[in-house]
Amino acid sequence: MTTIGILGAGRVGTNLAHTLTTAGHHVTLGIRDNDKPSTPPADGPEIPYADHATTARTADIVINATPGDSALERLTALRPELADKILIDVSNATIDGPDGLPGDLCYPGSSLAEQLQAALPTTHVVKTLNTMLFMVMTAPTALTTPPTAYLSGNDEQAKKTVTALLADLGWNPAWIEDLGDITTARATEAMILVVPHILRRNGFTPFAVTIAR
pLDDT (tens digit, 9 = 90+) per residue, 87-105? Predict the structure, then answer.
């Protein structure tokens, strides 16, 4: 059993928390101020929550599910709590367009994952699960076409650990594509720019940006 702290208690964070808890991990949801996480489904597990610092400090692995446009400042403040830990970044740092959907990147020519790794040099940042709607993260087999989960990170052992965690979320190893070091995250983060166009045409129907072979 792994102790996992998830920073962010919105749809992404709570969705991951429920599935990982069901898989046998001890999960804490990190919240800000007096916010409370989303209510679990009637048949779902009850997830404990704490402030961000406590959540990061007491976890073996930390998942960043906070809004990408403000994540860098928020997580940089947790440098001591995140030291020597794996940080899984599933967020995309974007600037919203007029309709509230992603319109541009906050870090063109770079990525949130790269910025986090530079700001947290003793933390092992791994980028993954940021190229799909949130419900696919924990139900990849629900799609008719096998989806792809991309991995970017400098530490090979950290990526192996994350790959094992993805298996607990239902990901087939054949669907996981290790792109290389953390600089490759700029490619997958840029994929988010296709998402609003798909959403405008099809609504929030589950999908993933996938490699077909």
Answer: 999 999 999 988 888 899 9
SS3 203: coil
Per DSSP, the residues of 157-175 read HHHHHHHHHHHHTT--GGG
| Calpha distance 91→65 (Å, rounded) | 6
Asked whether residue 210 is assigned to any structural domain, the reply reads no
Does 37 reside within a domain? yes
Rg (CA), the chain: 16
Among residues 97, 56, 49, the alpha carbon closest in space to that of 79 is found at: 56
**Distance in Å from the first CA to the final CA of the chain:** 34
Q: What is the CATH number of the domain that holds 161?
A: 3.40.50.720
Instruction: Give the C-alpha separation, 78 to 120, whole Å.
Output: 9
Q: Is the model's pTM score more than 0.90?
A: yes
Cα separation, 114 vs 107, whole angstroms: 9
Given a contact cutoff of 8 angstroms between Cβ atoms, the answer to whether 136 and 207 are in contact is: yes
Return phi, psi of residue 118, to 5°: -65, -40
Is 105 domain-assigned?
Answer: yes
> Which domain covers residue 81, as residue numbers?
3-202
Report which residue type is found at 74.
Answer: R
Residues shown for the chain: 213
Tally the domains of the chain. 1
